[in-house]
Amino acid sequence: MTSRKLLGFIILLCCGFIVFALYLQHYQDVLPCPLCVVQRYAYIAIAICCLFGRYTPFIRLASFFSLLVAVGGAFAASMQLWAIKNPAIQCGRDPLEATMNSLLPAKWLPSVFKSEGYCGEVLDRILGLTPPEWSLAWFMLFAFIFFIIMLRRRR
């Protein structure tokens, strides 16, 4: 598969993940925590970088920035998993919540970017994994793909 086709597929996956997160939020009443919102930002940023790389000659540059964002998203997912495994650390209010909700996207599109949940909340499993576990797996897979794209020779 060509690098441009891979980037197109990743764009579709990222859009699908955002749609699924909104479904969980609005129809299953799973409120997003600050780290969930950070992961949403990461998926959107990856999709934008992939879009840039797919339609410009700067595919390696776009892959580099996508790799950085994927590593950041994996870190956010790891932090959420750590918060779930260590519930005693949480004091009932997440300190990231006020910061995340003061950002402009949270004010412009609160239904997408407003944080209202707790990072330590245990979520139901979907096909054997919780949403942050799925997110971590996908971010790691994306990082690997972006690294491979950066190493490929031009054709």
Q: How would you describe this structure to a colleague?
A:
With 155 residues, the chain is an all-alpha fold. The chain has a single domain, classed as Bromodomain-like. It is globular and about 50 Å long. The model has no long low-confidence stretch (mean pLDDT 87). Pfam families: DsbB. GO terms for molecular function: protein-disulfide reductase activity. It is found in: Cell membrane.
Please write out the topology.
Layout: H1 3-27, H2 34-55, H3 59-85, H4 95-102, H5 104-108, H6 110-113, H7 131-151
Helix pairs in contact: 1-2, 2-3, 2-4, 3-7
Keyword list:
155 residues, mainly alpha, Bromodomain-like, 7 helices, globular, Disulfide bond formation protein B, DsbB-like_sf, transmembrane helix
Written as H for each helix and E for each strand, in order along the chain, the element string is HHHHHHH
Query: What is the CATH superfamily?
Result: DsbB-like
In terms of DSSP E residues, the strand content is under 5%
CATH architecture: Up-down Bundle
Report the biggest beta sheet as strand number plus sense, adding barrel if it closes: none
CATH class value: Mainly Alpha
What's the CATH topology name?
Answer: Bromodomain-like
State the secondary-structure class: mainly alpha
**Structure annotation, total helices:** 7
| Low-confidence spans | none
Tell me the number of strands: 0
- What is the overall pLDDT average? 87
Helix content: over 70%
What separation lies between the terminal Cα atoms?
12 Å
Query: Structurally, how many domains make up the residues?
Result: 1
Shape field: globular
Gyration radius, to the nearest Å? 16 Å
